[in-house]
Design a protein that fits this description.
The chain is an alpha+beta fold. Among the domains are: 96 residues, 2-Layer Sandwich (Alpha-Beta Plaits); 100 residues, Alpha-Beta Plaits (2-Layer Sandwich), CATH 3.30.70. Helices cover 59% and strands 9% of the residues. Strands 1, 2, 11, 12 and 13 form a five-stranded antiparallel β-sheet that branches. α2 crosses α9, α5 runs antiparallel to α6 and α19 packs antiparallel against α21. The longest helix is centred in the first third of the chain and has 47 residues. The radius of gyration is 43 Å and the shape is flat. About 8% of the residues have low confidence.
């Protein structure tokens, strides 16, 4: 239980690793993940460290593996992931791995280069084939494709016809560029060219990007070399590919036959190349994950070795690590395994060090507690060895959520969804879903499960299930005695038939038989003053839960003061704080319960208002005739409590600062007084005091060798901190004002429990009234269809609005109540997280500082 209540006790240790065994030892430490290495070379450039060449080699191997992985994904081949965790390869195996990856990369690059060249050639032949076919169609549409008669007008009525020979070019262009291409030709050549184009039905594959592109065949007729040059430049600008096209049909026919034969041969070569590439990639897909793990483990080891120092003999590496005291035996055993694996005969040494540095905070978690610990850590990493709020958050967080979300039906739906994630967690983890939203929900599956279970409980207390009450035990209210007692009075049969709302008087015998066994009586669901009753109940409940929650938080601060041996914080911090809060708001809870117990149905009309009584308590006003006292001697008790609360303020504000100043002056004087430069008194001098203190510490280390110098007791004797009276006074004033005002504002903040619970219930009722009542309003086959449609929309809206949106709102408000109202009473959260060197986090891709 101590592991949960506080962070693990940490120690700074020094590792002496033999050069030949350092690699294997660090490998074993990475497998267990219990040590955090410190950088002993902070001033050394990254490129000047000892193992920088090995790190670069690992990065180069990682690059080659990423290239192989990219090719495997491009080929749509599934990579085999058996979940195997291979051992770290020895340094001598790096050469073999490099050779394997180099050979694989070169082979894939050669295949890709050849395949790209073949595809490019195949594309050119395919385009030429389409050009030859389309141009033949163009020429067939013309009577004489090589000759054209142009009419030249010399004089009116006189025409000379001269046979002119037209040139032409043929090529292929992207289909989307045809309109712009045609306009450009018309403008540049001033309409002196003739363009024919036809679309290629089947898309062609781009050899560089492997994308499917749509192209068109074109042929351009022109006259003269000047237009020919212009046409070729325009084609070049539009990235059109020109191909040689014979002028005679016989030559075109012979070329087309040759092209078809070459295409068939090239297609066979392409198929063989693709089969070879698939075989290489499929073989790589079976082991690429294992290769990745090996390379990244090696890289992590060499990166960690770069954090170490090397002694002058170049035979030993010195490392400093933070590690939990409870895991020292496991670390020692891992070092022995690493030494044996490396074949070294010199054992590695683990030596605990004494330091004044603040250790990192390490809270051990499991799959159940990790979600709640993450909630606490999101506020701030706890200071070393202070109280950890996570164990209490496991209960209080889902409970406060359920107070706002309380609904039996919605709680059951949330519990079922969380149970699905919990029961199938092994399979879902193996699937490795990359969706960020799903991963976040899956990580908090146990939080959602407890929130659902607690919502079921509060739903039973509220007697609320999809805005409807459940009558299991029969109502505690009865109409019959009320009716029988007034047959001749107001309660007649005519009155019952004509009046929609009647008041049940609990003062009449038999009307109120007794409280409902559990939760709120179901008759309140049809009462006209239901909202008024629930408002009063939930508001008082919110204040009670809030004050108890805050008092519990203040009480936890006592354990921090006791552990860190700070008696001043107990006498002038904890005691005034608990007295201040209990005198005011603890008293408010007491009078709420007192009023509930003291007044019955017959005397409830004479009960005073608690709000007015609480206000009069601060004003010392007890002569208000409209506010009757709750009990005898109420003015004396309340005046005493207010005076006690006010007396706590200067105690927290001034007294602690003055005592700290007095203690600092006493430590400076060392129990002596100086008068006129002459030292008097029985205390030791400063030098003598230093010698005595040194001897006492040495004696203590001999008597108690297991006590770490990180203990608070040692810090209290060892450290004599500088004291600034002004800074301390300002700090204490801010803390006091914040606490006193926070008690009021924080108590009011807990009224969000009442507000969100009321909002959730009203939204649920509105949804039922507006949707489900429509489906239930008619019968027959039409009513069944209408009910089915209404239930479909009711289900969708319930999940989307009441479960997801309202659940997220209640979650955020419960989070705020823990961060601001609860944890600030005892939790500073000013530490830094323990980040052990572990292969697990490296392989999962989590960043480490």
């Amino acid at each position: 239980m101590g592991e949960l209540l506080r962070s693990e006790e940490m120690t700074l240790a020094q590792l002496f690793l033999q050069s030949e065994a350092a690699y294997c030892c660090v490998s074993e430490l990475g497998e267990i993940g219990m040590v955090q290495f410190r950088d002993l070379n902070p001033d050394v450039n990254v490129f000047q460290r000892k193992f920088v060449n090995e790190v670069r080699r690992c990065e180069e191997m990682d690059r080659k593996l990423r290239f192989v992985e990219k090719e495997i994904k491009k080929a749509n081949i599934e990579m085999v992931d058996t979940g195997e965790n291979p051992e770290v390869p020895f340094p001598r195996d790096m050469i073999d791995l490099e050779a394997t990856f180099e050979k694989l990369e070169n082979e894939l690059k050669e295949i890709n280069t050849n395949q790209e060249a073949l595809k490019k050639n195949f594309l050119e032949l395919t385009e030429l084939k389409h050009i030859l076919r389309r141009t033949q169609q163009f020429f067939n549409e013309m009577e004489d494709p090589s000759l054209h008669e142009e009419s030249i007008l010399l004089e009116p009525g006189e025409v000379i016809r001269a046979p002119l020979r037209l040139g032409f070019v043929a090529g292929v262009i992207g289909r989307e560029r045809i309109p712009t291409f045609e306009r450009m030709l018309w403008r540049v050549c001033r309409g002196n060219v003739f363009l024919r184009q036809s679309e290629i039905e089947d898309p062609l594959e781009d050899p560089t990007t492997s994308d499917q592109v749509h192209k068109s065949v074109f042929i351009i007729f022109f006259q003269g070399d000047q237009l020919k040059n212009r046409v070729k430049k325009i084609c070049e600008g539009f990235r059109a590919t020109l191909y040689p096209c014979p002028e005679t049909p016989q030559e075109r026919k012979e070329m087309l036959a040759g092209v078809n034969a070459r295409i068939d041969d090239l297609q066979m070569v392409l198929n063989q190349t693709e089969d070879h590439r698939q075989r290489v990639l499929q073989a790589s897909a079976k082991t690429v994950r294992v290769w990745f793990i090996k390379v990244r483990k090696m890289k992590a080891i060499y990166h960690t070795l770069n954090l170490c120092n090397i002694d002058v003999t170049q035979k030993c590496l010195i490392a400093e690590v933070w590690c939990p005291v409870s895991d020292l035996d496991s670390i020692q055993f891992a070092l022995r395994r690493g030494t044996e694996k490396s074949g070294s005969t010199v054992p590695s040494i683990l030596n605990r060090m004494q330091t004044k540095q603040t250790p990192p905070t390490y809270n051990k978690t499991n799959k159940f507690t990790s979600g709640f610990q993450n909630i606490v850590d999101a506020y701030g990493i706890g200071s070393y060895r202070e109280i950890n709020p996570a164990p209490y958050t496991i209960i209080t967080f889902p409970f406060l959520f359920a107070v706002m979300f309380g609904d039996l039906g919605h709680g059951v739906l949330m519990t079922c969804a969380a149970l699905y994630l919990v029961l199938r967690e092994t399979r879902l983890i193996a699937q490795k879903n990359d969706n960020e939203m799903f991963s976040m929900v899956f990580a908090g599956r146990y939080i959602i499960l407890l929130m659902g279970v607690f919502s079921i409980y509060t739903g039973i207390i509220y007697n609320d299930c999809f805005s409807k009450s459940i009558n299991l035990f029969g109502s505690g209210w009865s109409v019959r005695p009320m009716f029988d007692s007034k047959v001749g009075g107001n309660w007649t049969f005519d009155l019952l038939n004509t009046t929609r709302v009647l008041q049940l008087d609990p003062a009449v015998d038999g009307v109120f038989k007794g409280p409902y066994p559990i939760g709120i009586d179901p008759i309140w669901n049809i009462a006209s003053n239901k909202l008024t009753f629930l408002n009063s109940f939930k508001m008082k409940m919110s204040v009670i839960l809030g004050v108890i929650h805050m008092l519990f938080g203040v009480s936890l601060s006592l354990f921090n003061h006791l552990y860190f041996q700070k008696p001043l914080n107990i006498y002038f911090g904890f005691i005034p704080e608990i007295v201040f809060m209990f005198s005011l708001f603890g008293y408010l809870i007491i009078i709420i319960f007192y009023k509930w117990v003291s007044y019955s149905a017959r005397t409830s009309r004479d009960a005073p208002s608690l709000l007015i009584a609480f206000i009069n308590m601060f004003l010392f006003s007890y002569r208000d005739p409209t506010s009757k006292p709750l009990y005898t001697g109420q003015p004396v008790v309340q005046s005493f409590l207010v005076i006690m609360a006010l007396a706590c303020v200067p105690c927290m504000l001034v007294v602690k600062t003055l005592v700290l100043r007095r203690q600092h002056m006493w430590r400076q004087n060392l129990g002596t007084q100086n008068f006129g430069g002459v030292r008097v008194g029985n205390g030791p001098t400063e030098d003598e005091a230093g010698i005595i203190q040194h001897d006492q510490l040495a004696q203590q280390s001999e008597d108690e060798p297991e006590q770490s110098l990180l203990s608070p007791a040692f810090k209290a004797r060892e450290e004599v901190e500088e004291f600034n009276f002004a800074d301390e006074a300002v700090h204490q004033a801010i803390h006091t004002i914040e606490y006193c005002l926070g008690c009021i504002s924080n108590t009011a903040s807990y009224l969000r429990l009442w507000a969100l619970s009321l909002a959730h219930a009203q939204l649920s009722e509105v949804l039922w009234t507006m949707v489900m009542r429509i489906g239930l309003s008619s019968g027959g086959l039409g009513g069944f269809v209408m009910l089915t449609v209404a239930f479909f929309f009711f289900s969708i809206l319930t999940v989307a609005i009441l479960l997801i949106m309202e659940g997220l709102s209640a979650f955020l408000h419960a989070l705020r109540l823990h961060w601001v109202e609860f944890q600030n009473k005892f939790y500073s959260g000013q530490g830094f997280k323990f980040l052990p060197f572990t292969f697990e986090s490296i392989l999962e891709g989590r960043s480490e500082e």
